[in-house]
Design a protein that fits this description.
Strand content: under 5%
Oligomer: single chain
Distance between the termini: 51 Å
Shape: globular
Largest sheet: none
Order of helices and strands: HHHHHHH
Structural class: mainly alpha
């Protein structure tokens, strides 16, 4: 019958350009690596020139991320509250954990309780911006101490995971 014919058809593969969307974590990895190179360049040049100012660096990162992020967060939250009769779990999770999104620590919230589950990468990016100047400064001052700091952070991260 028709079931046998359909089952015998080869599975259709998504178009090549669509595969990138299916591999989102790969895209996040690439973004973080490129962001790391960019942050190293910005911070190390600032140290070399004597013009690096931590407050300006953090302000620039916040100005780049916060406006659009807060708007999307409010839209998602208002949508969750507006649909509270049908998705109580989503509303409760979003209402309880929205503060974590605002402080960029939502990647520490259990995945099923996150307000915007896809926003964990933004939190990781912002945390990276907080830590990267310290690491670059340590390496700029002493490559040996910088390497010790990097390996210590990798070890601690691995142990906490």
């Amino acid at each position: 019958g028709i079931v046998t014919v359909v089952a015998a058809l080869p599975p259709s593969e998504p178009p090549f350009y669509y595969r990138f969307a299916l591999n989102g974590s790969f895209g996040v990895d690439i973004f973080l690596v490129l962001s790391g190179f960019l942050m190293y360049q910005i911070v190390s040049k600032g140290f070399q020139r004597g013009t690096f100012k931590a407050l300006h660096f953090f302000r620039d990162r916040a100005v780049r991320l916060l406006p659009a992020y807060v708007v999307v967060l409010l839209i998602i939250w208002m949508s969750a509250v507006g649909m509270s009769t049908t998705t109580t779990q989503t509303t409760n999770s979003c209402t309880r954990t929205i503060w974590a999104n605002l402080f960029f620590v939502n990647n520490f919230v259990p995945f099923e309780n996150m307000c915007m589950q896809w926003s964990w990468s933004i939190a990781v990016e912002f945390q990276f911006y907080l830590v990267s100047p310290l690491v670059v400064y340590a390496m700029w001052r002493s490559m040996r101490r910088g390497k010790i700091l990097c390996w210590s952070m990798i070890t601690l991260s691995t142990l906490l995971n």
